[in-house]
Structure formats: C-alpha cells, structure tokens
Design goal:
Layout (H helix, E strand, L loop, with lengths): L11 E10 L5 E4 L4 H15 L5 E2 L11 E6 L9 E5 L3 E6 L2 H14 L15 E9 L5 E7 L7 H13 L4 E5 L1 E2 L2 E2 L8 H4 L16 H13 L3 E8 L4 H6 L28 H17 L4 E5 L8 H16 L4 E5 L13 E4 L9 H10 L4 E3 L2 H4 L22 H5 L15 E8 L7 H8 L2 H10 L7 H17 L25
Parallel strand pairs: 2-3, 2-4, 4-6, 8-9, 8-17, 9-12, 12-13, 13-14, 14-15, 15-16, 16-17
Antiparallel strand pairs: 1-7, 5-6, 5-7, 10-11
The structure holds acetamide (ACM).
Length: 508
C-alpha cells in the first residue's frame, strides 16, 4: 500500500506492517463529547461484523487482552482542527480536536476496513485494519453538496441516504434548494398556500411534494448526527413562479401566473414595489430560521432577469436586511455581489466557469470587499447535473458541454478569480440541479463518482491532487460503492474492477 485507501486523500499517510484485527471482543472507548461519535462508529460497524462492539467510558479498564478502539478529543497540534489516527496490532487510537474532526477520522477508519463493512447484513470476512498512521485536516471548512428539491422533489428518506453518502466523503454541508419556479417545498405556517398550491407541481408535470416542518427537522437532526449542517435556500426575487402562482397578491398586478413545469429560467419576479413582499419575506425567513440551527440562510438572487437593475438592488438591500435580522449569516449566488449594501460578512457562491465570464469576478470582489468569503461552485467543473458525455441520457449541457470526471477533478478553487486565494474561500460546493433527475438511482448516477472528486478538492491539500493516483485509488475503492449499493457511472477514464454486484454498472 503506497497511497492511502481513503477518499478524500489525507494530508499525511504512512503505512506500517501488520494488522489490527477487529473481533467480537473489541471494545470502543470514549468519554465526553467523543461518546456520540463512538456510538455512531459502533452502529456503522455492527451490521456487517455482527460484533457487539460495546461503547465504554475511556477510564473503564478493558478486559485484559481485549483489543480496543480509543476515541478522544484533544489537541492534535495541526495547523487547523483535524485528527490523528494510529493503527497498531493491538490498538486503534483516534484523536481529534473536536467532535466534527473525530467524525471525519471515523470515516477514514471505516475506509481502512474491508469494503464488505458497507454491507447491511453480516459478512464472513476477516476484519483486518492495516497498521497505519494518518494525520489529517481539511483544506476548507465548508465542504458542501446542494440538492435541488424544487425541480423534482426528493423525500426525507432519500435526503437521509444522500447525507450518509456525503458523510463517507467528509462533506459537511447540505444546501437544500427549497424553492423555484416549479415548486415550493417547505411548509410555512403563515403562508399555507405556498405548499397547498405551490408544491403540487414539478418539472414535466410530476406530482411534486414538500417537507412538513417535522420532515425538515428530521433532515436537520439526521444531518447533525452525521456532522452535516443544513443550509436552506429560499431563492428570491426570481425563480419564484410557484410562490407567485400560490398568492396572486405577491404579483404587481394581483394576478397569479399559471403553474410552471418547464425548465426555462429568468421569467419570474416577486413584486419589488409592494410592502406585502417584504412582510412575506419576513415571515418566511423567520419560520425557516427558527427551524434551522445552522448559521446560514441562502437567499439565491441568481438569474433575476425579469427584475430591473434598480429594482434588484432595492430588493436585495431590503431582503438581506430582513433575513439578517433573524440572526443568520446570508449566502447569495454571485449575482448578489451587484449590491454594495450587503450585511457585513455575506457569503457569495460563485457559479460561473473555471475561467470567469462576464463580470463574475467583479461580483466575487464585491463580496470580499464587504467582509464576506466565497463558496466556489464553477459550473463547468462541479455542477453534478451536467452530462458526463454527449451521448448520455441524463443531464444538461449548457455549462460548456459535458463535464467529465477529469473536468470535475482538475481545477483549483484558488486559481479561478485573480486575487482570491484560500483565505477568501470558505469552501466549495457541488450542486445537483434536478431538471432531468427524478429518482434516487439517477441522482446517484449523476453524483458518483464526480462528487468524490469534489470531496478531494474540498478536503485534500492542493499538493495531494494527482489525476493518475486519484483514478487508481478510485478503481481500488469502487467495491466499497458496490457494497454500499450506491449507483455510479463507470466512466471510461477509470479502469474499474469487475462489478461485484451485477446490475450496478452504468450504460456508458
Ligand atoms: C444557478 O445555477 N442559477 C445558480
């Protein structure tokens, strides 16, 4: 083993000799805030091993001779919070600066076990962990994935499955694009028609759907148990046909447009001149903020082509002030940088290209000048809804044609906008827009393996990026995807091993 069998690649990895054997007498030891992570680890390892794996307080003397896995929280003396994982023949020690990094370290430990650990039923396998030393910490603190549940709706069960897949890759933010022209997907008590009427549509005329507040809370809590923060997006002032169709009074002429199930953009706008619009926003932002423990609220602001420049600037000034009054740090797509009246620290999300077009770099500079940072989501590299290849059935092609795995891997967030380096970048995010995606199998096919490339860009140091090494590691790692029953595209760029589970391979 010369490189780490861990995705994303760790900062430092050294292979020793020999193995630690996980057995039916292994005990997991942890104290304090390490204990919930220890319970998570035990739950992860029990189904495939069938071992009891009790979690004990760290000061409980272990039965002599019983192998232990010890999880502790304490200083790791690394440049930013991270974890240290040491595997010897008798002991596994995982130490992290905080619970989030302990959780990340558990994902590395999980990946050192045989791929069969991903099965949900007991497997007849020797559970050997190679002796290694890993010291590791993330390049960026915000490592996101976005799911568009507005164009097509995905229920809480599907979202939880996605959260588990994100956790494996040390992704720690799920951005939910909750509202768009084709559907409003979160219940708001004070404006019930948003869901009663606005949630009944989807692209292509499907059934739609929405999250009750209980559903949303279930997602948020499940995410927290996976060390993932949920960022809700209410996209305004454009991308609002579903809201405008549900409430005629939100339109300047008091007349509701027809529900929309196509895939055009840029034709809808809230009525900028009506006070009711701002009452509406205050209610929605208040209810969403109350349901969301995380620090961020995403206001969209993209593609507002039906809003005049003057109206856009007035709207953004008022809407961001209202949203900020509910205690959240705001995020906006990069167009929002047109405004010079953003609440201090507002985060921009860049979705132009690896080589910036139009005035996207000016928008980025505006966020930074106003005290904010950037989330980088260049559409031609990390939009997971782009086709893999011209002959694929799923996906769109507007971002300069297909996005191969190589395109998804070979870019650097700090090399896009001149003067914007790691210190200005909060992190990166891989969006999945769902105009062409309406089921979990297609979702995973578009996401995997490109999201693994995204995770490596978000976590691993620039110096660790190596395409040949990445594709080799990915091929070795793919039986883990098979064992986890994750659908993925066996792209031609990778020399995949035989599929261990028939039926999982792609059509390409
Ligand atoms: C976007 O793709 N309109 C953010």
């Amino acid at each position: 083993m010369t490189t780490a069998p861990v995705m994303p690649a760790p900062v430092h990895f050294s292979a020793g000799t020999g193995h630690y054997a996980l057995t039916d007498t292994t005990v997991i030891q942890a104290t304090g805030s390490a204990q919930p992570v220890a319970e998570y680890l035990a739950e992860l390892l029990r189904p495939a091993t069938g071992f009891p794996l009790p979690v004990a307080a760290a000061d409980t003397p272990a039965t002599p001779g019983s192998p232990t896995i010890e999880l502790t929280i304490g200083d790791t003396a690394q440049p930013t919070p991270g974890y240290l994982l040491s595997v010897t023949e008798t002991r596994i020690e995982l130490r992290a600066d905080d619970a989030a990094q302990l959780f990340a370290g558990v994902q590395s430990l999980r990946q050192l076990l045989p791929h069969a650990i991903e099965h949900h039923t007991v497997q007849d396998v020797d559970w050997l962990v190679p002796c290694v030393d890993i010291s590791d910490y993330p390049r960026f603190s915000y490592r996101g994935a976005m799911l568009d549940v507005a164009r097509h709706f995905f229920d809480a069960t599907t979202v939880k499955r996605y959260l588990d897949q994100m956790a494996l890759l040390k992704l720690n933010v799920l951005h939910l694009h909750l509202t768009d022209d084709q559907g409003w997907r979160i219940h708001i008590d004070s404006w019930p028609n948003l869901t009663a009427l606005g949630a009944t549509t989807a692209v292509g005329g499907g059934a739609g759907g929405f999250y009750t507040k209980a559903d949303y809370t279930e997602i948020v809590e499940y995410a927290a148990s996976r060390s993932i923060t949920v960022v809700p997006e209410i996209d305004v002032p454009g991308h609002t046909n579903a809201a405008l169709a549900a409430y005629p009074e939100l339109n300047c002429d008091d007349s509701a447009p027809a529900p929309y199930t196509g895939i055009e953009v840029g034709f809808s706008s809230l009525c900028i001149s009506k006070e009711l619009t701002y009452q509406f926003l205050d209610d929605v932002f208040r209810e969403i903020s109350e349901l969301t423990p995380g620090p961020y609220l995403h206001l969209g602001g993209d593609e507002s082509l039906a809003t005049s420049d003057e109206d856009y600037l007035e709207f953004i000034r008022r809407a961001t002030a209202i949203a900020a009054s509910h205690g959240k740090t705001l995020i906006g797509w990069h167009e929002m940088g047109r405004s010079r009246d953003l609440p201090a620290g507002t985060i921009g999300q860049y979705w132009s290209y690896v080589t910036p077009r139009d005035d996207a770099d000016t928008r980025v500079a505006s966020f930074i000048e106003q005290g904010g940072q950037m989330i980088m989501s260049p559409a031609d590299a990390i939009y997971l809804d782009m086709k893999y290849a011209g002959d694929e059935k799923l996906g769109l092609e507007w971002a300069d044609g297909p996005t191969t795995l190589n395109d998804a891997y070979n870019w650097d967030p700090a090399a896009i906008v001149s003067g914007v380096s790691d210190e200005h970048i909060l992190g990166i995010e891989a969006p999945l827009w769902t105009e062409t995606i309406d089921n979990v199998r297609d979702l995973e096919y578009m996401v995997f393996p490109r999201i693994i490339a995204a995770a490596e860009i978000a976590w691993s140091p620039r110096t660790a990026h190596d395409w040949a090494d990445f594709t080799r590691r990915l091929a070795d790692w793919s039986p883990r995807l098979d064992a986890a029953e994750i659908t993925y595209n066996r792209v031609k760029e990778v020399s995949w091993p035989e599929v261990s589970r028939p039926g999982m391979s792609s059509t390409s």
